[in-house]
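Q: For a teaching handout, I want to show students what a protein-ligand complex looks like in token form. Below are the inputs, and the small molecule is NDP. Please produce the holo structure.
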Amino acid sequence: MAEEPIRVGLMGLGTVGSGVVRLIEDHQNDLCHQTGQGVSIEKILVRDRQKERKVAVDPSLLTERPEEILKNDRIDLIVEVMGGIEPTRSYLREALENGKHVVTANKDLMALHGAELLSVAARKGCDVFYEASVAGGIPILRALAEGFSSDRITKMVGIVNGTTNYILTEMARKGTPFQSALARAQELGYAESDPTSDVEGMDAARKMAILATLGFHMDLSLDEVTVRGISGVTPEDLRFAAQLGYVLKLVGIAARNGEKVEVVVEPALLPQAHPLAAVDGVYNAVCVYGEAVGETMFYGPGAGAMPTATAVVSDLVTVVKNMRLGGNGRAIVAPYREKRVKGADEIFAKYFLRLRVEDEAGVLAKLTLIFAEAGVSLEKVLQEPGCSGDEAEIVLVTHTASRDRLDEVLLRMEELPAVRRIMSHYRVEGGE
Ligand SMILES: NC(=O)C1=CN([C@@H]2O[C@H](COP(=O)(O)OP(=O)(O)OC[C@H]3O[C@@H](n4cnc5c(N)ncnc54)[C@H](OP(=O)(O)O)[C@@H]3O)[C@@H](O)[C@H]2O)C=CC1
Ligand SMILES: N[C@@H](CC=O)C(=O)O
Ligand code: NA
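A: Here is the structure, written as tokens, with NDP included.
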């Protein structure tokens, strides 16, 4: 090939970084055809050069000194797959200030400081692409930024964390204990370095903030996302959900009514016929609803080395094409709508509640009175004997109610002596 290759500075050589190296090597010929240039990795930043690697690389490429990439005039483009907020944010700022384009898989950084990095990039005429940061190998950001640019998106509902979807699937299908399923997800390279952010929903919340910002053109940060993870989900919840015809998933919902939006991540029950109910294991999916297009759905692997590397290297191809066309720094439209977030009285859903109550006459009547007084009507009631002789287990599913009404019901139940414990409560998504 006559032209010089594009020279890449790779930051990170863990799960995703190793996949990126492998993909660039294995698909070099196709990449040349796509971009008109070869792609060559010039330097790789790691914490520890001596560490054993999952992929064979020339040891002279490895460095522990970020300046060998950031101040390297031969490098045109940085691929950041090291993760974390600092020092990553400072490195990427410096790279952009030095006129280097950036491709990143870092949702923590993009959810918190994406606007800042994009504005430096625009000022310097550089690209920042981050497709791998949401739903791994699914090209969902591209779809929102380009495929739906003529439409107005009203709702996005997704399974956007592979680790928790893998754990819930293993628990539901094989009865695998939570901790063993999490350990396996870590071995498979799905989990974050601190898996608490997967399990407690923060990883999904960061992704939903990115999706909602792009989809609704509002500057929606993590503060606007209501988050609940799956650490409280029990095998009994999964069993009762199945008995009532539901599947329990960690779901992200970003919905717009008029000019107000709601962004939430929480374990939710989906009717078995819901398109997301069949999304199992490490797979992710996002349903996108638009005023003109109606319902669409994007499905694919949400984590893991090669699927994530595909998103990273495809972004790299886009950057190289932009470099050739001279259209850099203009790819992502900055938010242009005023941010308006719904209150608890404007968020409507059905809810599932599981209670342990005293097994005596009149308890059900007291419970239904609480619902009636809060203006919440019931769709389903299921009663089973509890684990001890004087207890019963009651499962209730409401009709659509506002979130503040549900909170009132929960508060009043806690005050009722006949209710020994509220075991769980979940939103029921879809199937209205
Ligand atoms: N794993 C997945 O499936 C997905 C991950 N992501 C995102 O991709 C990014 C990378 O994830 P993953 O590959 O799993 O992470 P890993 O922990 O497997 O790899 C991180 C790499 O970055 C290097 N690194 C970390 N901090 C520093 C630092 N301060 N200075 C120099 N090098 C550093 C590490 O070096 P060393 O090896 O020497 O320790 C390691 O090579 C994260 O932002 C993650 O959220 C996005 C989608 C999917
Ligand atoms: N830990 C994340 C990795 C991809 O973003 C997940 O499990 O989805
Ligand atoms: Na993606």
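A: Two things your students might notice: The first strand starts at residue 6 and ends at 11. The pocket of NDP (ligand 1) is lined by residues 12-17, 45-48, 51, 81-84, 87, 105-107, 132, 136, 189-190, 192-193, 303-304, 308 (CB under 6 Å).
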